[in-house]
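task queued by scheduler; priority normal; single chain, no ligands, no partner chains; default sampling; output format set to structure tokens
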Amino acid sequence: MFSCFWFNDAANITISYSFSVPILETYLLIMSSLMISMFHGGVVSEYSKKYVYSALLFSLVFIYFAIDEFLNSSVNSLCSPYYASCFMLVGLHLSHVVVGSLGLIELIYFDKFELVRSKSEMIVVYWHFVDFIWLFVFSVVYIFNGNIF
């Protein structure tokens, strides 16, 4: 994240082709976090699985928009070290969202086993951490464009 500040030699062009895409991505991750919280609160309920399905759907839509954003960006990672840092930061976060989505699939698939129910807290905490980190990534890359100082 520091490299986005250090190498900020670019114009005020964000890596996204539209500012509404990162806003939508933020909404999707916040909603997925809400769904996971509702699942975690009712983990023994027979209806709690629908919250995991919803969170997984939100995460898959986030992944789609993030990949679309990478493919349709007006700049690329070769334009400057700043853009390379931003793409690396967003891409690293995207890889963690993919891993978290695999954890959500695990919660759905192995829900009937007591072992997964007892270990679901680890997946829930990981998912909240990924959402929390996105707020920093969103702030640095999209809102401030590396121009905090």
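post-processing summary
- The first helix runs from residue 2 to 6.
- The helical segments are 2-6, 20-41, 49-71, 81-109, 114-143.
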